[in-house]
Structure formats: C-alpha cells, structure tokens
Automatic annotation (TrEMBL):
<dbReference type="GO" id="GO:0006892">
    <property type="term" value="P:post-Golgi vesicle-mediated transport"/>
</dbReference>
<dbReference type="GO" id="GO:0005794">
    <property type="term" value="C:Golgi apparatus"/>
</dbReference>
<feature type="signal peptide">
    <location>
        <begin position="1"/>
        <end position="31"/>
    </location>
</feature>
<feature type="compositionally biased region" description="Polar residues">
    <location>
        <begin position="126"/>
        <end position="140"/>
    </location>
</feature>
<dbReference type="InterPro" id="IPR000601">
    <property type="entry name" value="PKD_dom"/>
</dbReference>
<feature type="region of interest" description="Disordered">
    <location>
        <begin position="87"/>
        <end position="107"/>
    </location>
</feature>
<keyword id="KW-0812">Transmembrane</keyword>
<dbReference type="InterPro" id="IPR013783">
    <property type="entry name" value="Ig-like_fold"/>
</dbReference>
<dbReference type="GO" id="GO:0016020">
    <property type="term" value="C:membrane"/>
</dbReference>
<feature type="region of interest" description="Disordered">
    <location>
        <begin position="122"/>
        <end position="152"/>
    </location>
</feature>
<dbReference type="InterPro" id="IPR050310">
    <property type="entry name" value="VPS10-sortilin"/>
</dbReference>
<comment type="similarity">
    <text>Belongs to the VPS10-related sortilin family. SORCS subfamily.</text>
</comment>
<dbReference type="InterPro" id="IPR015943">
    <property type="entry name" value="WD40/YVTN_repeat-like_dom_sf"/>
</dbReference>
<dbReference type="InterPro" id="IPR031777">
    <property type="entry name" value="Sortilin_C"/>
</dbReference>
<feature type="transmembrane region" description="Helical">
    <location>
        <begin position="1143"/>
        <end position="1161"/>
    </location>
</feature>
<dbReference type="Pfam" id="PF00801">
    <property type="entry name" value="PKD"/>
</dbReference>
<dbReference type="InterPro" id="IPR006581">
    <property type="entry name" value="VPS10"/>
</dbReference>
Length: 1235
C-alpha cells in the first residue's frame, strides 16, 4: 500500500514538474520586437534592493537581448502576441496616423514627465522622445495620455505625465533571472518581503477577444474620461478588418462600448484630441474602406460623421485656436479646417512632407498664416507664407526671394532656418524674429557635411554639426541670440541612426534645472558620459557610486573610471538604456548605465541621483520601468519580465528603499502602463492579459489610498544645487524644496516649483568664448589663428554703433551681476569710418544661369563697413545700373529683367569716402531651348571627313554647349559650335548623337550614317502638291522616304538593300537617293564595282525620267518623283576628291553640250548627269551601256519633260511600270563619262 501510494505521489510530482516546465517555456516565448513611433520612450532597467543579496554569478553569460515593454514573456497566441504601444497622436499638435510614415520632426520630451528636450526635425538629442510633440515652438504640448498595443511591442507615451518604457537587457537580464523561479513566478524569491495591497479594479474587454491592437487615451488633466480603440489586424490581408470604441467615465473602472454611436460597420483607424480643448475628439476611419472622420464635442460621448475627399497622412493643430487644423494628404497636398474637421479647404499642393508650420502671434504679421516649403521644378524648393484661407499667388509671401535646398525649411521659435545652394555648396541661412536672412557664421574651417538644429530654447540656437572629417560623431555649437555666430560647445558627441532614418545625438537636457546637460563623447575610441552645469561651457565626468548595490566599496578613480549612462537610441533603437527626470522633481535623475572606463551595453544597472548628478547610487540590477507619482514625490517601478506579475514597487525616499505592492489577485502579462495626465499622477492603468487565450485586461490602480493627507510646509526640506561644492551656477545660487523621506502626503499642485535663488557676482567662469576666439588651457579666450579681430561688426551695417567684443560673451541664461561683468562684457562703441570689405554678390537661385524675360534677383551682402555711409551700386552688364544709399535698402535683393540672350558681367560696388570694394559675376541669360535637329548625309565615304551640323529652335537661345557621341563611345566631343567635322574609318552603320545644353535644359537628336568605300547618289524632287502637306517633322520624312524606296524597288527590281532614300528637311521637299554596293561586291574588281553601280544608276534614272516613280499620299493626291540635276548643300568634305563643286558643274555643262551634238549626229543617245562620290579615282573605267531605249530628263526650269530620240530599242508605251532587270544589262568597253 505504501509502495503504491509512493508511486502515485511520484507520478503526481513528475506531472507537476512537467506542467511547470511547459508553463515556463510558454511564458518565456519571445514576441516580435519592433518600433512603430518615430520617437522612442525611456525605460529604467533594474531589480529591487531586497533581491540584491542573491548569487548572480551565473548571469554573466546571458545573452544581451533587447525588447520593448513587457511583452517578451507574453503568450504566443496571435491575438496577444501582437502588442504595440505608442503615443496617441491626439495628445500632440502634430499627429501621424500612419505608423510607417511617422514624422521625425518632433520635439524631444522626457518620456516620463513630458519635459521638453533638445530637438530638431530628424534629430533626437537623447534616447527618449515623443512623436506627438513635434513643432514645439509653434504648437505647444498636450496633456493627453495614450498607448497603442500591437505585435508584441510596447512603447507607451503620455503627454504631461507619461508612463512609458523600453527594455534593454544586459547580461543580468530579467529573462535569465526567471530561470531561478521554480515556484510561483516572481513571488518565489520574495516571499519574505512584506506585501501591501493597492486599491485596484480590473475590466476585461470580453467582446473583442480576437482584437490584437489597442489604443488607450486618457482625455486630460482632472478628467475621468478614458477612451480605448481596439482593432483586429489581419496579417494575411495586411489591413484592419474590425474595430471597437470603448469609453470610461470613472477613471477606468468600467467601460462602455460605443460601436452603435459611431456605426456598427465603421472601421476606425486613429483617434485624436484637440490639444487646446480635451473635450473635442476626432476619429479617422480606415481609408481602405471609407475616407471619413467622426467628431465629438463632448469628450467622446456622441459623434458626427463627415466625409473626406482625401486621405489624411498627418495633422498639425494650431497652438492656440482649438478648431484650426492642417491636414497633409498622401498626394502632397495641404488642407486647412477652421471648424475642427467639419469642412476642409485646399491650401497648396506640392508641399514638402513635414515642412509646414503655423505662425506665431507676436512674430508673424498675422495669426492665421502658414509657413510652407513647396517643391518646384528641377528638384528645387521655395519657402513661402500663405494666409489661412487664401493662398493665391497674390497673397503668397516669399520671405526668402530665391530657391532653397529641398527639405531644409525649419521654423522654430524666433528662428527660421533654410539652406541655399551657392556655387555648388550648401550655405545655411537664418532669420531672427522674421527679419532678413543672413548666412550662419561657423568657425572658419568648420566644413559641415551635415547640420542639424537641436534646440532654440532660451533665445539661443544649439546646432549639431558633422564636420568634414567626422563619420559617427557630431560637434555641438551654440549661438548668440540672433543665431548668427556660433562657438564650439562640445566635440565628438556620439551619434547614431534613429528608427525612421533620423539622426540621434547623445545629448540630454535635465528637467527642472536650467543649464544642466548630459552627453556621451568619444575620447580615444571610448564613449564616456560628461555633465555640464553651465550649458556647455565646462564639462566633467560623472562620479561613480561609492558602493555597489550589495554595499561593497567601489574603487573607481577618474579619469580612468567613472559612471557612464545610456542617453541615446542607437541604430537598433532597443539596445540602449534610458534616462528620466522631471520638472516637478528637480535634482532627481534616474538612468541605466555602467561603472568603468567606458560605456557598454553589458552589466547595465540603474542609478539614481538626488542632487542633480553630483553623487549617484545603484538602485536596481534588473530591468524596471520607473515612473514619478505625486508630482515627483514618490517613485513606482514595474519589473520587466517574461512571466506574469502581481506586484509593483514603490519608493518614498528617492529610491533608497522599495516597498512591494500587489495590484491584482491574478498574475498579469503586462503590455503597457498609462498614467494620469498632468503632474499629479495618482491613478495608473496597467494594460495586459492573464493568459494567451484571454481578452485584454485594463487594471486601474488608485494610489490615493496610500497617501494620508495633504502636504504641509513641515513635510518639506530644502537642498542647494551645486557643482562639486560650487554653489554659484549660471550666475545664481538656487535652493529647492523636496519632500522629506518616507513622508506620504499629497503635494499641492504648485508646491513642487518652490525654489529660492540669489544672484552671484560675475566671474570668468560665467563667460564663454566669443565667435572667433578659442579657450586656452589656462581658461582664457584668445583669437583663433584664422580670425582677425575687426573694429566693427555686422551691427555697423544697419546702425551707427556696435558692441566691440573682448573675446568673451556671457551665456544668455546666466544671471550673474556686477563682479567681473564690465571686464568681460563687450563695450558699445560708435562705428568708425571704415572702407567696406567682404562684399558678396550672387543670384537668389544660387546659379549663374537665368531665363530671358524673367526677373533675376541679386543678393548683396557686406561683411564689414559702416552701412549708413556706404552706398551700393549694382551694374547689370546690359547698360543699366542702379544705386542705393546704404546696404539696408536691399535686404530683399535687387531685381532685374534681361531683354536679350547673352553673357553679362554683373558687378556690385560698395563705396564710401575711405574706399570701395567690388565683386562681379558672369551671368548667362538664355531662352528656353525647344528642339535641336541634327543634319548629316545618310551615306558617306569611308576615310573622308563629313560635316555634321545642328539647327536649334529657337535659333538664338544664348550660350549653347554641344556634346557629340559617335557609336557607343562613352566620352563625348564637346564643342561650343553647332557643327563638327568627323571621319568614319570603318564601313557599316554608325550612330551619331548630339546634345545641346542651354542652362538647365538639354535636348538631344540622333541619326544613323552608313559608311561605304564608294556609292552613287541622285537628288530627287517631288511634285509641288507634296509641299502643301509637309508638316516638317522627322517622322513624316522617314515615312515618305520609306514609301519612295518601296516604289523604286517595285519598279526597277533593284534590291532594297542597295537603295537608301533620305528626305531632306525644308521646302521645297527634296530627297537624296543613294545606290550602295551589294554585300557580295567585295569580291569584284574596282572597275567592275563602278560599272555595276553605273548600270543600276542608269536603270533608276530611266524610271525617274519616264515618270514611273509615283505614290498616293492620300485619296486624290498623287505625288510624282523626279530626278534633278541640282545638288543639296555640300555635306561631304571633297577637298581630296579631285573635283571641286564648280569644276563638276562646268564639266557637266560641257559634257551635256557635247552629248547633245554627239547624240543628234551620230549615236542619238543621251547620258544623264550624276553626282559621283568615291574614295578612289580609277585610272580607267568601263562605260555603262544601258539596254533601255528612252530616258526622260526633267527640265530644270519646270516640270515639263523633254523627250529625246529613241536610240536602240523602242520601249512600248503600254509597258510603263516595267523595266528590264539589271541582270540583263550588258556592259561595253567604252570609257564612261563620270560626273
């Protein structure tokens, strides 16, 4: 009995072990990892302090894998193995409804607190960013929260108080850790930890079990409304086939399904919310089914449906007007609505993607103005401004008069940036406060391969520039207030490619404290993390923690060892760590990183600082997402694990201790977290599922129950910001308030901003080096070798005084007073009289070619000189000139129209009583070339030069460059003349191609030339009725030539391979017939070859003279073909032929007279004249005796034919259309007359 019982227990135990193993394998199945939004969000990787005592020696070999969110351990069923969370587009001003086409023009925000970070179109200054926060300056920020689940990916955004994460697994990964959990998942190892219960509720989306995508949106701050859009994405068809809309009015405790209100058959794709009025909701339908939108004005309670005539690709909400929206379509058209989408109006077409911006009140002339970059011909763009509902040509503004490089317009805060092509190079221009554009002045030998605008905060521009010698790094530069003059901020900052092809810069601005930045820099092939407290003037390494998580002392001495943090998204956006800070918790920074000589992706831990980066503590060694609660007064951490979890961790002492809280009774596979909008964040929603076959679960966690009371002044303590003991930072002493450790009270909404400050006396440390100066090892600023300090500046161009630099300039956000302020500050001086210097002149298009009859805009810039006393004269080179009393009069350029084509010398002269400066350029004025036509003989003699000519339409178009190709040669002959002489050295068919280039226009013509050793040719004329129907196109001439050749072959019996007919251009219509040797003629002697061609020529002329060659052009129009003695224009160089043109004519005349007498009195026959082309002149030729009896010769003075007497054999008049075959023709020994 005992044996049987033991056997049963063994079987049960074995089955239990097998079941647990199977569950672990299923739970550890990895989901697909990919990133949908263009801007990624932060995660914090860690494990709790109470787990730190465990042996981690076996974790060193774990693979370094990365995934997004919590879904790596999610079950593998299709509906839940597809989870993807992204920022809801409605919480932004610029929204991207197509995940694959997200706009990379986004402002970087701290993914946990919505803090604004350095940003620029296609540039991300740190690892976490918000795709919805694009166009910060123009559009502000929103308060909505959302996440979007699909395909096992988790990326969660919140605009305001954001819950988000992205996982980076090092050697000590959560997945490896899970191998030590034989019982109870996460609870097995922490059973001794005291567990607290949170107030929570769970809602199951039971009716949409099959749906595999979800978007959840929290309407706004102080709102209890949450909207959720679930969809079923069919991977086979590649489209969404089902959708459901859910709404909660009690912070997520319960949800109501709204499909009946939006239409049971309606398939929804995206959800947006007005950033200025959270009660206004917009839903887009799936364009694959229908193109329409649904609008709600009551926070999603009811909807009105409106049809769309276009598909929306992206939206841009106005920063102030809640109903004003710009919509960009798939066909590059921009639409506007001033009624929150109920009606739309076309603004402009050919708009460059993501290059449209709302105007800003106070900077732009009108509130309802739009800044646009539009595409024009030849791959160029133009910067224009349009009124809201009237973008006609008369209402368009052109802030910059010329063309710009495509995709270069950036409108951000007070600045407008463009790139202009000048002399084959890209020149960066900036406009400050919508004034005139000026070139950005970088250090002289900074030759940028790429320039990206990172930030325009604090009335200052931060730019990342990849210099000519850099590949994977950028240099950071900072400007003065106008964005004109830039000085070096930090060299060799790490960069990488982002998920959407954008550039990621390892630069992070710490929230809550102005002037504090973190950056990763390459130093001797090692990546190290540096921190600055004075906005880039001074940088230093981070001090490593004194002890590790186990309390062991850390031996780490700078500069050989320090703390390094992950700040960026690399080419693979899931491999880097993340960093989090918050405006409401100044001084607290949480980031993943390593301690050692350089930054690595292995053995990554989570570190926290409470004093803005002076000292750091290691808090986790496993991957966690950390969020701020209660306006930064508390922290909550959620573990990344492939297994379901029941607990989260809270800290009330800035991460020094963590308490374990249960949020659900059943373990949940977590897909994402959504926090309450705003700074309060006392309610969170965790999104996931219980098993691979269960429906979506929305778990609402209410943290309000763990906070006993409202905070009072006794619950706070103060701390002073310092940099390694130095308390004067950016010219101020700053003291902040924060909650005491372990105080559980609810912070009032305005208490987190409490701080005290006091200004400091200015010292040298408050000044950075001015433009053209460089900092030496002793800290002083001296002129760079290329810089010659000038007594004047650009201010003297437009005014009478200027600030004369001392080599130093105070940072714009520095608030120091007195002290050394006067010593280092520039001194205002009266502009001295000085001869002008550095005059520049170029066209607005950046080219040296312009079109006849169109305005040419010349831009004139003067680098130095007293503008009020310096006059400018522009000489256009065509006899006209214009003068201006000062340089400021021509900020918009000088316009001129040329009336004739040609090359003009344009000059600009700046002069005053002390001297002058002059600059010039040569401008090519041309008109549009419409056609080039190549003329050449169809048949030429081998080794004889032939003249090839061209005709242009119109004939006078300016300077033309001709490119000639012969056969398949890759290198052309280049000429400025439309004619060329060429010698063909081989027999056969050759291709001649010519291109005529005028300005940006190139036209081409091509023809084939046959080359032979010898041939005969005759000029043909046509009856006059053909001229009336000659359209003058090459295709028509080719068809006429083909018809004439066919008639000749049919009448004479000559092989078509030996006849070539070319109809010549022009009127009257003429042609040339070529008789070429047959292929087998190579075996014959020279005399025999010539005799044979003469024989064929006689046969052909006989047919022509007897009016046998004719064809029908169209019903009722019969065209006759005649032989003529007239020759076309000489196409062959006959200098070596032995016969000049005059000699041939005289010889023909003499021979004809002799022939007439000879025929009348003796032989009564005639030999017609013919043109002869030959490469060699035989010493003796055989006479050709035709067997035809009568030859009609056309009268050169008219169309009337003259009959000659019959000689040998009478040709029956009834047999017209037939001639004896040339094979029956007999040859005589008499020498022929050759013409």
């Amino acid at each position: 009995m005992e044996t049987r019982l033991g056997h049963c227990l063994f079987i049960i135990f074995s089955e239990w072990i097998w079941l647990l193993t199977t569950t672990s394998i299923l739970g550890g199945t990895k989901a697909e990892v990919r990133c949908i939004p263009s801007c990624q969000l932060p995660l914090i990787a860690a494990f709790p302090r109470e787990l730190s005592a465990l042996d981690l020696s076996n974790f060193g070999d774990a693979p370094a894998e990365e995934f997004v969110g919590y879904t790596e351990g999610s079950p593998t069923d299709e509906k839940h193995n597809v989870a993807e969370l992204t920022a809801s587009e409605e919480s932004s001003h610029k929204v991207q409804p197509r995940s694959g086409e997200n706009d990379t023009n986004c402002l970087q925000k701290d993914a946990v607190n919505g803090h604004q970070k350095l940003s620029h179109p296609e540039v991300f200054a740190q690892s976490a960013s918000d795709p919805s926060a694009s166009n910060k300056t123009e559009n502000g920020t929103g308060d909505g929260n959302s996440f979007y689940a699909k395909n096992g990916d988790v990326v969660v955004n919140e605009d305001g108080n954001v819950a988000s994460w992205r996982r980076t697994r090092g050697a000590r990964s959560a997945e490896t850790w899970s191998g030590f959990r034989p019982e109870g998942g996460e609870d097995a190892l922490v059973s001794d930890q005291e567990e607290f219960q949170l107030t929570s509720s769970t809602f199951a989306v039971t009716e949409d079990t099959a749906h595999n995508q979800a978007m959840v949106h929290w309407s706004g701050q102080n709102s209890s409304v949450i909207l959720m859009l679930t969809k079923y994405y069919d991977f086979n068809s590649g489209r969404v086939t089902e959708s459901s809309l859910w709404r909660s009015t009690d912070y997520g405790t319960t949800y109501e399904k709204l499909n009946e209100k939006v239409g049971m058959k309606t398939i929804l794709s995206y959800l947006y919310v007005s950033p200025n009025n959270k009660r206004k909701i917009m839903l887009l339908t799936d364009p694959e089914v229908e193109s329409s939108l649904l609008i709600s004005l009551d926070e999603g309670a009811s909807y009105q449906k409106h049809s769309l005539a276009f598909d929306i690709l992206s939206l841009l909400f106005h920063p102030e007007q809640e109903d004003w929206i710009l919509a960009y379509s798939h066909d590059q058209k921009l639409y506007v609505s001033v009624e929150f989408g109920r009606r739309w109006q076309l603004v402009h077409d050919s708009v460059v993607p993501n290059r449209f911006y709302w105007s800003r009140l106070g900077l732009d002339k009108e509130q309802g103005m739009i800044h646009l970059e539009i595409s024009v011909s030849d791959g160029r763009s133009q910067y224009i401004t349009c009124k809201l509902q009237n973008c006609s040509d008369g209402n368009k503004g052109k802030p910059f008069p010329g063309f710009i490089i495509p995709n270069s317009l950036v409108v951000q805060d007070e600045y407008v940036f463009i790139q202009v092509p000048v002399g084959g190079q890209s020149v960066h221009y900036v406009s400050y406060k919508r004034n005139a554009f000026y070139p950005m002045r970088l250090p002289k030998y900074t030759l940028p391969k790429d320039l990206q605008i990172i930030s325009t905060d604090d009335n200052q521009v931060v730019a990342a520039i990849q210099d000519w010698h850099q590949n994977d790094s950028y240099n950071l530069y900072m400007s003065e207030s106008r964005g004109l003059f830039f000085t070096l901020m930090l060299e060799d900052v790490v960069s990488s490619g982002g998920p959407e092809g954008n550039i990621m810069i390892d630069l992070y601005e710490v929230a809550g404290i102005k002037g504090v930045f973190l950056s990763n820099k390459v130093v001797e092939n090692q990546v190290k993390t540096y921190i600055t407290y004075n906005k880039g003037r001074d940088w230093r390494l981070l001090q490593a923690p004194t002890t590790d998580l186990q309390g062991n002392k850390v031996y780490c001495e700078q500069p050989y060892c320090s703390l390094h943090l992950h700040l960026h998204v690399s080419e693979n956006p899931y491999t880097s760590g993340n960093i989090v800070s918050k405006d409401s918790a100044p001084g607290i920074i949480i980031a993943s990183g390593v301690v050692g000589p350089e930054l690595t992706n292995t053995n990554v831990s989570v570190f926290i600082t409470s004093d803005a980066g002076n000292t750091w503590r290691e808090v986790f060694q496993e991957e966690y997402s950390v969020f701020f609660l209660n306006q930064g007064g508390s922290l909550v951490a959620i573990r990344h694990t492939p297994l379901p979890i029941r607990h989260i961790w809270l800290s009330f002492d800035e991460g020094r201790n963590w308490d374990k809280y249960s949020f659900t009774s059943s373990p949940l596979y977590v897909d994402g977290v959504l926090g309450e909008p705003g700074e309060d964040t006392l309610i969170m929603t965790i999104f996931g599922h219980f098993s691979h076959r269960s429906e979506w679960q929305l778990v609402k966690i209410d943290f309000r129950s763990i906070f006993q009371q409202q905070c009072t002044s006794e619950d706070y303590l103060t701390w002073q910001l310092h940099n390694e003991g130095e308390v004067c930072i950016m010219g101020m002493k700053r003291i902040f308030q924060k909650l005491k450790a372990n105080v559980r009270c609810v912070k009032a909404r305005d208490q987190y901003i409490s701080q005290m400050s006091d200004s400091c006396p200015c010292t040298e440390a408050d000044f950075e080096c001015d433009y053209g100066f460089e900092r030496q090892t002793d800290g002083s600023c001296t002129p760079a070798f290329w810089f010659v300090p000038s007594a004047t500046s650009r201010d003297c161009i437009t005014g009478d005084s200027f600030l004369n630099t001392t080599g130093y300039r105070r940072a714009l956000s520095n608030n120091c007073t007195e002290g050394s302020l006067v010593k280092y500050s520039p001194r205002r001086q009266k502009c001295p009289s000085q001869a002008p210097r550095g005059l520049q002149l170029f066209t607005s298009e950046g080219t040296l070619v312009a079109t006849l009859g169109k305005n040419v805009t010349f831009l004139v810039f003067l680098e130095e000189g007293l503008g009020s006393m310096t006059s400018i004269t522009v000489d256009f080179g065509d006899g006209t000139a214009i003068s201006y009393v000062n340089i400021s009069s021509i900020d918009d350029g000088v316009k001129h129209i040329y009336s004739k084509v040609g090359i003009y010398q344009v000059s600009a002269t700046a002069s005053n009583n002390l001297g002058l400066d002059r600059v010039m350029l040569y401008l090519h004025i041309s008109c549009q070339l419409e056609q080039v036509q190549l003329s050449a003989p169809s048949v030429v003699v081998k080794n004889k030069a032939v003249n090839l000519t061209t005709a242009l339409r119109p004939s006078n178009v300016g300077t033309v460059t001709y490119f000639w190709w012969f056969d398949n040669k890759t290198e052309p002959f280049v000429t400025l003349d439309g004619a060329i002489s060429f010698t063909f050295s081989k027999e056969g068919s050759h291709t001649v191609t010519v291109q005529a280039s005028v300005g940006n226009t190139v036209h081409q013509d091509q023809m084939r030339v046959a080359v032979y050793d010898y041939f005969r040719s005759h000029v043909l004329a046509f009856s006059s009725n053909l001229d009336e129907l000659n359209p003058g196109v090459s295709e028509w001439r080719e068809d006429i030539g083909r018809v004439v050749k066919s008639c000749m072959v049919q009448v004479t019996g000559i092989s078509e391979d030996q006849l070539l007919v070319t109809v010549l251009p022009g009127l009257p219509t003429t042609a040339e017939i070529f008789i070429v040797p047959e292929k087998r003629a190579r075996d014959r002697g020279t005399d025999e070859k010539w005799a044979h061609l003469d024989q064929l020529s006689q046969v052909l002329l006989s047919a022509l003279n007897q009016d046998l060659i004719q064809f029908t052009l169209k019903p009722g129009v019969q065209v006759n073909v005649y032989a003529t003695r007239l020759s076309p224009a000489p196409l062959v160089d006959s200098s070596d032929s032995g016969h000049s043109g005059t000699a041939v004519i005289m010889l023909v005349s003499v021979v004809l007279m002799g022939l007439a007498v000879f025929v009348i009195y003796k032989f009564k026959r005639k030999i017609p004249g013919m043109n002869t082309y030959t490469a060699e002149q035989p010493d003796k030729e055989q006479e050709v005796i035709p067997t035809v009896t009568s030859i009609a010769v056309p009268n050169p003075e008219g169309d009337k034919l003259t009959s000659l007497e019959h000689v040998d054999v009478q040709l029956d008049s009834k047999s017209r259309g037939y001639l004896p075959s040339h094979t029956d023709i007999k040859l005589s020994d008499e020498a022929p007359h050759v013409f």
